[in-house]
């Protein structure tokens, strides 16, 4: 179908790219244009105008971040997701600064990887739940605007409860289990939270909440 999401996969380990390719090819809304460990073959695949590029971080002869930056200089601007074993804050920071739209870990559940890819395709910046706290620490230096801070007051008690769990790095599925509500209900609440705060990603919302809590704690101690 023409409306399927077109993907290109890059990993220098044959077993990894074959497994990922089979997982994604079985999804009704994905088309895997190709999976490769060759940079030259990758360029040919990118000429087919994929919607997303999914690449490994630790690759030879060129790591994923260096490869992505090189592709950008060559004019290939396909949105990219990093799928890696590395839970390093340094790698996460370098990947985000290189412009990736997602940072996922290979030990994530297959369904969570698929869900994350779909969210990236819809415009979200997505990081693995295990990396969310590290992402928040990276962004602490960025001060949210007063308008965003005031918008927190618009959240319902349930939305604040969900935002608190987001700030701990919980996935939608984990939040649903914790609060005994459906996965779809959690997704709807998250959309409402982002709309009310006028933010583009759950990570930014989590950062905002964490900073507000830190401000409240400081005030109470004072």
- Shape designation: globular
In the CATH hierarchy, the third-tier topology of the largest domain is known as Rossmann fold
The main sheet comes to: 6 strands, parallel
The count of strands amounts to: 6
Discrete helix count: 11
Structure write-up:
- The chain is an alpha/beta fold and 222 residues long.
- It folds into two domains: 5-132, Response regulator (Rossmann fold); 140-221, Rossmann fold (3-Layer(aba) Sandwich), CATH 3.40.50.2300.
- Helices cover 54% and strands 13% of the residues.
- The protein contains eleven helices and six strands.
- The chain has helices at residues 14-25, 39-46, 64-73, 89-97, 110-121, 132-139, 146-151, 157-167, 172-179, 183-197, 202-221; strands at 5-10, 30-36, 52-55, 80-84, 102-105, 126-127.
- The chain has a six-stranded parallel sheet with strand order 2-1-3-4-5-6, with helices on both faces.
- Strand 4 (80-84), helix 4 and strand 5 (102-105) form a beta-alpha-beta unit.
- Helix 6 packs across helix 11, helix 8 (157-167) crosses helix 11 and helix 9 (172-179) packs across helix 10 (183-197).
- It starts with a strand and ends with a helix.
